[in-house]
Automatic annotation (TrEMBL):
This is RGS18 protein. InterPro entries: RGS, RGS_sf, RGS_subdom1/3, RGS_subdomain_2. Coiled coil: none annotated. Keywords: Signal transduction inhibitor. The gene is Rgs18.
């Protein structure tokens, strides 16, 4: 029997272990060879979602182990209390980011934090030469219509971002990232602070495995526009 890795080289996931995040995302969304019937957007989204859950498809620990709270479980109650001070404080600490990512997975909305992390990585690009491929990958993965991990953005923000993809700057995704940040701050963050997992950390206990929940109603852009406008990232 022939080696399946030779027949389907895209299955050789371990080769992606050391690739930067944007390159991994780009290879994950690369179109497959032409087939008789083109897979639908839902199938693509499901396939990419499964791939993104594999540790080999992520750079560093932020996205590498979002399903584990082993790091967060060792956080002291005093440290966990600080996460409740502000959303920015939560994301600034690795254990907090890991715990919040796991929480978003239970709500099937992890694309928001993955987009935010991708934008943070994008802004750390060392040269202008790196910007174009990274920008295209982020746009195709998170922003364009029917993207595998499409985030909730208003039409104006999408258009402005789209127009700058051809000649991207480090600020290309600032507006979109800010919008997604604020949506998470208004919607997901308060629920995280009320979650059983976070309360367990406050009490110094390892959080129990949370059951998967149905996707809750997402906080929409129109909802956000009715909120107070003086938030800063």
């Amino acid at each position: 029997m022939e080696n399946p890795l030779l027949l389907f080289p895209q299955l050789n996931i371990s080769a992606s272990k050391d690739k930067p995040y944007y390159k991994v995302m780009k290879s994950a969304i690369k179109e497959e060879p032409h087939k008789a019937s083109k897979p639908g957007a839902k199938q693509k989204r499901n396939r990419l979602s499964l791939l993104l859950q594999k540790p080999e498809f992520h750079e560093g620990d932020h996205l590498g182990k979002p399903g584990n709270l082993t790091k967060a479980a060792s956080v002291s109650p005093e440290e966990a209390v600080k996460w409740g001070e502000s959303f920015g404080r939560l994301l600034s600490e690795k254990a907090g980011l890991d715990a919040f990512t796991k929480f978003l997975k239970t709500e099937f909305s992890e694309e928001n934090i993955e987009f935010w992390i991708a934008c943070e990585d994008y802004k750390k690009s060392k040269s202008a030469h790196e910007l174009l491929p990274k920008a295209k990958t982020i746009f195709e993965t998170f922003i364009q219509k029917d993207a595998p991990k499409e985030v909730n953005l208003d039409f104006h923000t999408k258009e402005v971002t789209s127009q700058s993809i051809g000649q991207p700057l480090r600020s290309t995704f600032d507006a979109a990232q800010s919008t997604v940040y604020r949506l998470m701050e208004q919607d997901s963050y308060p629920r995280f602070l009320s979650s059983a997992a976070y309360r367990s950390l406050l009490q110094g206990r390892a959080p129990a495995r949370a059951p998967l929940r149905r996707r809750s109603r997402s906080f929409t852009v129109s909802d956000f526009q009715r909120a107070r406008p003086d938030f800063t990232v």
